[in-house]
């Protein structure tokens, strides 16, 4: 009988329910962040590599011809 009384008391006890809600909400936000980073990460990496490649092949002497000054 003690087990049933304990189970009944435990099921009615709401202490800590807010903590559980916050833990679930935080886990959902972290999971969503990881999903976004996984989805977008490859494209951002490719874009960064393309920008780096373009910058490494840019000839800075062309800027003087555009502005009319010496470079």
UniProtKB/TrEMBL annotation:
Organism of provenance: Celeribacter halophilus
Protein origin, superkingdom: Bacteria
Transmembrane segments: 20-45
Keywords of this entry: Membrane, Transmembrane, Transmembrane helix
Protein name, entry field: Flp pilus assembly protein, pilin Flp
């Amino acid at each position: 009988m003690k087990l049933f009384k304990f189970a009944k008391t435990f099921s009615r006890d709401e202490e800590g329910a807010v903590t559980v809600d916050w833990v679930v909400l935080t886990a959902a936000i972290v999971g969503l962040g990881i999903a976004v980073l996984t989805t977008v990460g490859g494209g951002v990496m490719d874009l960064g590599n393309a920008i780096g490649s373009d910058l490494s092949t840019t000839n800075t002497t062309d800027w003087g011809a555009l502005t009319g000054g010496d470079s």
